[in-house]
Amino acid sequence: MKRLIAASLVGIFLLTACGSSDSSGINKDHAAFCALAKDLETASAGPHGEDPAAITDPKVMKDVWTKVTALSQKMADGAPSEVKADVKSMVGGIIAMNDIFSANGYDLTGMAKDAKIREELAKISSNPSTISASQRFQKFMIKNCGITAN
Question: PROSITE patterns per the record (predicted)?
């Protein structure tokens, strides 16, 4: 179960792996994109940050992942050209994870019992090209959105 939860959280944190910022240090050309990233960070913190047990509630999982997936897609659509391919790669992983969650009723407890599902999620969360894209994205965010890496 712990691995499944970790894999699900990796999808969220691929796009929000950097820390908070204030308005200083934001590249004006990327202010809207930085705001989208902040919205995604806020949405993904939601009940998981306040109540880690909430991740085992299928309704909460569905609500969170539906919102996170939609915000992730919006972020990919609005990504600056120099980071667009990386954001699309990361969002692809989030969408793939959400597809698995949706097909299984967002029931992490049930999915944790299925080795095939755990393997599919682990494959998505450990994809080397997505991890590289995430690293480049983090560098972009540090440089253009005035954030610090966690």
Answer: PROKAR_LIPOPROTEIN (PS51257)
pLDDT digits (tens, 9 = 90+) for 1-56: 545 555 555 555 555 555 444 445 788 888 898 888 888 877 776 555 555 656 77
Task: For the full predicted model, state whether its pTM sits above 0.70.
Answer: yes
Q: Which 3-state string (H, E, C) describes the chain?
A: CHHHHHHHHHHHHHHCCECCCCCCCECHHHHHHHHHHHHHHHHHHHHHHHCHHHHHCHHHHHHHHHHHHHHHHHHHHCCCHHHHHHHHHHHHHHHHHHHHHHHCCCCHHHHHCCHHHHHHHHHHHCCHHHHHHHHHHHHHHHHHHCCCEC
Look up tokens 């999620």; give the residue: 121
For the chain, give every domain's residue range: 2-13+35-145
